[in-house]
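Researcher: Go.
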Amino acid sequence: MTTAAEIDTPETASITLSDSAARRICKIVAKEEPGTMLRVSVEGGGCSGFQYVYELVTTRADDDLVLEKDGATVLIDSVSLPYMEGSVIDFVDDLIGQSFQIKNPNATSGCGCGTSFSI
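Model: Structure:
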């Protein structure tokens, strides 16, 4: 298991979880079975080439990156990790609505819905 502290090396930019995202994840998983975590992955598809996928899971793989903050746990699989290096996972609540948003420095463009991107 890789922790956020282990991935924060000069060769590999870390992925961070904002305070607002951690609070929202805790609120969501409080209604689920104990041990539920949020998995964020990158898959081919979407308007811009790649898309983020969010799912609630109760198991983790040995090679998952595990981000923990204020009781929230986020898993990122090893295949998605290179596409998300240096990203910030955030939760935004504004006039347009509420959503998880990933601020990804690797993305060269994105779509209007904010869930797909290209590199």
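Model: Residues 1-12 have pLDDT under 50 and may be disordered.
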